[in-house]
Amino acid sequence: xxxxxxxxxxxxxxxxxxxxxxxxxxxxxxxxxxxxxxxxxxxxxxxxxxxxxxxxxxxxxxxxxxxxxxxxxxxxxxxxxxxxx
Length: 85
Description:
It is built from four helices and two strands, in the order βαβααα. By secondary structure, the chain is mainly α. A two-stranded parallel ribbon has the order 1-2. Strand 1, helix 1 and strand 2 form a beta-alpha-beta unit.
C-alpha cells in the first residue's frame, strides 16, 4: 500500500511495515514510494504479508471480540473497585 498520511489510511497502514505513507500533497514523495515498491518485490511481499497479518490480528472478528471482552472486564473491575456509580 502506498497512501497519503491522512484519514483512515494513517490509522490502517503502519508506515514502513504494512505500506508506505507519504505527506499529503507531496506528489514527488508519493511517486518515489510507488517507484521504490515497484522495484523491490521482496519489500512488496514483506509489506503485503505484514498487512494481511495485521488485518487478521487487529480487525478480525476474534480480535474485536477479545478487545470488547477486555474492555468489559476493565469496566467491571472499575465498578468493583470504585463501588456503584
